[in-house]
Amino acid sequence: HLQKKRRAATARRQHLKSAMLQLAVTEIEREAAAKEVEKQNYLAEHCPPLSLPGSMQELQDLCKKLHAKIESVDEERYDTEVKLQKTTKELEDLSQKLFDLRGKFKRPPLRRVRMSADAMLRALLGSKHKVCMDLRANLKQVKKEDTEKEKDLRDVGDWRKNIEEKSGMEGRKKMFEAGE
């Protein structure tokens, strides 16, 4: 019984899907025909049939008129393109503002890259980068000063002698009293 219901539901779904596709195809065909009719109407309105005059002067006048018409249409096209670019830019700005207001900025996953300073400068500056940066070249030389610890180590001398003195409880007591 359950199998029959499933088959019926699947068949109904497939039938509805095919009916929807059929409707969509007819709608697309209807829209294409309407666009074609609209195009023909526009061309008939804006582009009257061309009648070529017989004399040379009339032909030159016709060419001048056509040239003026072409220029005006070209200006219109340019103005519309500029308006379109302006509108597109405004749309992008507004969508960016909307995106910022939502605050759902997803950071792209970043990879760690090990680069030397030279490679980094070369990547940033491109062919302008000619100087090699040796980071250790500009470091200041520091003399090692004798610290008290080192003096103490030199004064101690052989470590085996001190071991016997500091071994056992007496040695610990001496170390504690000396504050070492």
Automatic annotation (TrEMBL):
Keyword vocabulary terms for this entry: Acetylation, Actin-binding, Coiled coil, Muscle protein
Q: Name one GO molecular function term.
A: actin binding
In the UniProt record, the gene name given for this protein reads: Tnni2
| Quaternary state and interactors | Binds to actin and tropomyosin.
Q: What does this protein do?
A: Troponin I is the inhibitory subunit of troponin, the thin filament regulatory complex which confers calcium-sensitivity to striated muscle actomyosin ATPase activity.
Organism (species): Ardeotis kori
> Pfam families, per this entry?
Troponin
For this record, an example GO cellular component is: troponin complex
GO terms under biological process: cardiac muscle contraction; skeletal muscle contraction
Nucleotide-binding recorded as keyword: no
Coiled-coil stretches: 25-104
InterPro entries cross-referenced by the UniProt entry: Troponin, Troponin_I, Troponin_sf
Q: Would you identify the family this protein belongs to, as annotated?
A: Belongs to the troponin I family.
The identity of this protein, by name, is: Troponin I, fast skeletal muscle
